Amino acid sequence: MRVLHVIGTYPPTTAYTGPPDAIHRLYQEMILQGTDVRVVTTDTDRTQRLPVVTNRWTEHQGVPVFYGRRWGWSGHFSPSFLRAIVRSARRSDLVHVTAVYGWWLPVAAAACWRNTIPLVLSPRGSFAPEALAWHSRKKRVFESLGGNVALRAVQAFHATTPQEEAHIRALFPTVHVGCVPNGVDIPEDAKLRGWRVGPSEPFLLFLGRLHTHKNLDLLLRAWAPVARDNKMLSLCLVGPDDERIGEQLRQLASDLGLERRIHLLGRRDGEEKSTLLARARALVLPSKSENFGNAVAEALAHGTPVITTTGTPWSEALSRGCGWWVEPSEVALGAALREATELPSERLAEMGARGRVWMQEAFSWPAIAARMRAFYAEVIERARSARSAS
Q1: Residue 96: its H or E element
Q2: Which of 133-147, 176-190, 335-349 has the lowest mean pLDDT?
Q3: Residue 14 pLDDT exceeds 90
Q4: Are β-strands 57-60 and 156-159 bridged in parallel, bridged antiparallel, or unpaired?
Q5: Read out DSSP for 287-322?
Q6: Which residues pair with 303 in a beta bridge?
Q7: C-alpha span between 298 and 276 (Å, rounded)
Q8: Percent of the chain clearing pLDDT 90 (strictly above)
Q9: How many CA atoms lie within 13 A of 171 on its CB side?
Q10: Is 189-362 assigned to CATH 3.40.50.2000?
Q11: Class of 2-183+365-389 per CATH?
């Protein structure tokens, strides 16, 4: 099985996280399981360029990658990137594209049609009702300039959650959809114990991009009355501030009298991030909507319970007893925050342990890679059967 993945940016990017990191980790595991996987992308890192070899095949941490050199000061336009899609599709059994609104989708669709191979598309939340309303005018322009033709050429969609699968089926009821979630790295017990050792004031943790879509203003307002009643606990916001809303959040914290109870720590990776995840009393993800919510899986893998909203696909955290899943309102979120601060540490540890077992059983990368391999094999077989029938 020869798979070509097409995505606008890829590790070692630091400006774009989430899907690029998840795809890279997935393909590392799939290669170990014997799948021939290659990635075609660009060297963009928002306004910067990645420190990589461009315009020829190279390798990043075991995954073959072609980084097309970007034209211009930002964005994803790269003629060599587009040419590499066309050339590489010729010797592939399947092309998998991430992101709907990228100019590489029509190019990949044409290459698949020319070589009679199936096209798989990961919308990564683009078909959620809230996402469809975002920049709707630009999306209509894209669709009118070839996007709709490309979407009609998709032979299978990849969803990461049942919620996303439902969004896709509402728009494309006759197209095959496979639901394969992101995986998560499960820390070793010894490392987890090491991260938990050391002096630390109790805190709750938000992990992710600082973005209006994450409902951080709601989080601060819900946190304010809880913080006033618990003078020892703080809230740490960890993640890149690409939208430049940090100052707004600091001003809101000041208005609420929370200057010393809210800490904006910027992006943290590696051991620093793991230490924060392992030591937090709970992770809070109050987003308006999430396609997956990697931070929730990461927290549970570190044995930390989670507080998240009904806009995310993590209702099972509630039923499994490893977190809270509440309406994105000040009252409901505040009640969950208060309960998490008042529960004994032993109870929180029990909740986190249940979540960690869940991640080990259902979200380990070897298990997710095996599911993706099976999905790809099914799509290829369906395409072959359709060609034979015609």
Answers
A1: strand 94-98
A2: 133-147
A3: no
A4: unpaired
A5: -S--SS-HHHHHHHHTT--EEEETTSS-THHHHTTS
A6: none
A7: 11
A8: 82
A9: 18
A10: yes
A11: alpha beta
Domain ranges of the chain: 2-183+365-389, 189-362
In the block, residue with structure tokens 């599709």: 89
Distance (Å, whole) CA 173 – CA 152: 12
Give residue 102's identity as a one-letter amino acid code: G
DSSP class of residue 15?
Answer: S
Question: How would residue 201 be classed by pLDDT, with cut points 50, 70 and 90?
Answer: confident
Q: Which uninterrupted H or E stretch holds 122?
A: strand 119-122
Amino acid identity of residue 170, one-letter, is A
Position 75 scores a pLDDT of 79
Assigned token pair, 317: 């955290």
Give the length of the chain: 390
| pLDDT digit string, tens, across residues 293-337 | 999 999 999 999 999 999 999 999 999 999 999 999 999 999 999
pLDDT at 4 exceeding the cut of 80: yes
205 within 8 A of 236, measured Cβ to Cβ: yes
pLDDT at 135: 65
Asked, colleague to colleague, whether 2-183+365-389 and 189-362 share their fold, the answer is yes
- Tell me if 236 sits within 8 A of 263, measured CB to CB: yes
Q: How far apart are CA 148 and CA 141, in angstroms?
A: 10
Q: When comparing pLDDT for 143 and 95, which is higher? A: 95
Task: Give the SS3 label for residue 261.
Answer: coil
Q: Which two tokens stand for residue 158?
A: 């990849």
Q: Which of 239, 263, 236, 233 is nearest to 250 (CA)?
A: 263
pTM: 0.89
Q: What is the 3-state secondary structure (H, E, C) of 334-349?
A: HHHHHHHHHCCHHHHH
